[in-house]
């Protein structure tokens, strides 16, 4: 009898050892997968460091460019704002380009074009040469701005997609902060040299972007669209923590790219034709995706970033060093609070953070307007500069907690695979148009209605964004990209939705 007990105990010990080995193997795979996806998100987000650095560094560089090249205030507005306007062409072209050559090589193209533009600006000797460089940089910005968050969304596991898709915004903010710091460090050089050094340093990240191309994989969803299913499976196995989940995701992608998007269903129409004459669900997606991109900019974030020295000068602050030091404080605040969004976006959800963000920015923008108005009326005295800095910092903090990163997350999540790249490109184009309009008109509008009046307008736009979030932005946390499509369907439309659970399970069985 004791022999049987001993034999049973040995069997139980063997089972326990096998379970322990399997658990350790799964734990090792989980850690390896998380590190790999994290590294991919970091590498591709380096593209956006360039974009952020350009915005941050121009806030200080324009002071010295104007002095060195003797350009007018109108030329400054055109120089600063044209980058955003021109980038919309890159954004629109980027959607189609990424469908043809892939997400990965579109990012490479973006980096190359942007860096050529920066190099031309660095050695420019006239306003015309500066404009040529800005035009090239704008096209590169358009490519990079739309493809980076889309790529990250397509390679990320559902559970961490929000966090990873926010990385581009982190790196934009890091770039802005580095631009501010560069302004402060090199401001004491000669006026002919300092702004060139400030701009030229932006070329350095290209080295890391070149290295990233040898590390990151192609998007599995793009690979499925090109019928390269085996390659897509390998990528999904690298980016998902267990094989079953990877196979389920592959089945969903195949269903979305094949059964749901065949030529017969869409009557052989090209994607751009369907975007021009969208179905009701697609129309709702476009309104949400383009709308949130526009609201991100019409609340004045680019004006606060690029023209912060001008804002603080109107608040009574004097001296270039003090003005540039204050902009560093804005950059530190913006970069710090984006980290809060990173930790909360997949835990709290997109919509709660958007509420906090839009309501907070409304209050702070109104506060900036009030503080500058009181200064003009002589009612704030020495407190006005302090109040202005605090409210501007509060504004960028609330912006970074919500609508700053979540705008890009939502617009890269909500579109079906067939439309995703080109629809996201339209959203990015809307973002760039609004950015350009704000950047190019801020100084002129401020002269017409005062800086305080301009911030009251921004506060009104921000209040409208609260209503927009309430009415049109769905919660996408915890849902796969293929499942999110159903959030925009009418109940009647959902009956015909091509991403049904039973269809997915049937395809999983085929795949496995």
Automatic annotation (TrEMBL):
Transmembrane segments: 36-54, 74-93, 105-125, 131-152, 164-187, 193-216, 323-345, 352-375, 387-411, 449-473
UniProt keyword annotations, A-Z: Membrane, Sugar transport, Symport, Transmembrane, Transmembrane helix, Transport
Membrane topology of the entry: Multi-pass membrane protein
Main location: membrane
PROSITE patterns assigned: MFS, SUGAR_TRANSPORT_1, SUGAR_TRANSPORT_2
Signal peptide residue numbers: none
Limits of the Major facilitator superfamily (MFS) profile domain: 40-477
Compartments, record wording: Membrane
One Pfam family linked to the record: Sugar_tr
GO annotation, cellular component aspect: membrane
Keyword Membrane included in the entry's annotation: yes
GO molecular function: symporter activity
Protein family (similarity comment): Belongs to the major facilitator superfamily. Sugar transporter (TC 2.A.1.1) family.
Protein name: Major facilitator superfamily (MFS) profile domain-containing protein
Species name: Eucalyptus globulus (Tasmanian blue gum)
Lineage: Eukaryota, Viridiplantae, Streptophyta, Embryophyta, Tracheophyta
């Amino acid at each position: 009898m004791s022999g049987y007990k001993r034999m049973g105990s040995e069997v139980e010990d063997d089972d326990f050892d096998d379970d322990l080995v399997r658990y350790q193997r799964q734990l090792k795979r989980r850690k390896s997968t998380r590190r790999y996806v994290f590294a991919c998100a970091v590498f591709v987000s380096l593209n956006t460091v360039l974009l952020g650095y350009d915005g941050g560094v121009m806030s200080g560089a324009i002071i010295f460019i104007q002095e060195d090249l003797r350009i007018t205030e109108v030329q400054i507005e055109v120089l600063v704002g044209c980058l955003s306007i021109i980038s919309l062409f890159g954004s629109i072209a980027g959607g189609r380009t990424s469908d043809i050559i892939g997400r990965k090589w579109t990012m490479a193209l973006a980096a190359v074009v942007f860096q050529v533009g920066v190099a031309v600006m660095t050695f420019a000797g006239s306003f015309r040469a500066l404009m040529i460089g800005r035009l090239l940089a704008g096209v590169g910005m358009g490519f990079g701005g739309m493809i980076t968050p889309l790529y990250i969304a397509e390679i990320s596991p559902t559970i961490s997609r929000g966090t990873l898709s926010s990385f581009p915004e982190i790196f934009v903010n890091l770039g802005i902060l580095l631009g501010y710091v560069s302004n402060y460090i090199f401001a004491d050089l000669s006026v002919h040299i300092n702004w060139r050094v400030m701009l030229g340093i932006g070329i350095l990240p290209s080295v890391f972007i070149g290295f990233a191309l040898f590390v990151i994989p192609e998007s599995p969803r793009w690979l499925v669209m090109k019928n390269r299913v085996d390659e897509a499976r390998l990528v999904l196995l690298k980016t998902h923590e267990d094989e079953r989940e990877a196979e389920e995701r592959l089945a969903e992608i195949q269903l979305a790219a094949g059964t749901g998007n065949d030529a017969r269903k869409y009557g052989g129409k090209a994607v751009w034709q369907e975007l021009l004459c969208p179905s009701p669900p697609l129309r709702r997606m476009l309104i949400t995706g383009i709308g949130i991109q526009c609201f991100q900019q019409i609340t004045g974030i680019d004006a606060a970033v690029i023209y912060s020295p001008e804002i603080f000068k109107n608040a009574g602050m004097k001296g270039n060093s003090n003005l540039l030091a204050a902009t560093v404080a804005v950059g530190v605040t913006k970069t710090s609070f984006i980290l809060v969004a990173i930790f909360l976006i997949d835990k709290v959800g997109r919509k709660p953070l958007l509420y906090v963000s839009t309501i907070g920015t409304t209050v702070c923008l109104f506060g900036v307007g009030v503080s500058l108005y009181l200064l003009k009326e002589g009612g704030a005295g020495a407190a006005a500069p302090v109040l202005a800095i605090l409210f501007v910092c509060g504004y960028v903090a609330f912006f970074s907690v919500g609508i700053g990163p979540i705008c890009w997350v939502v617009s890269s999540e909500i579109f079906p695979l067939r439309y995703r790249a080109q629809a996201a490109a339209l959203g990015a184009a809307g973002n760039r148009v609004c950015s350009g309009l704000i950047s190019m008109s801020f100084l002129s509008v401020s002269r017409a209605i005062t800086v305080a009046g301009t911030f009251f307008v921004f506060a009104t736009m921000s209040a409208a964004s609260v209503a927009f979030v309430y009415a049109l932005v769905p919660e996408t946390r915890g849902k796969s990209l293929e499942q999110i499509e159903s959030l925009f369907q009418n109940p009647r439309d959902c009956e015909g939705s091509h991403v049904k659970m039973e269809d997915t399970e049937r395809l999983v069985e085929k795949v496995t």
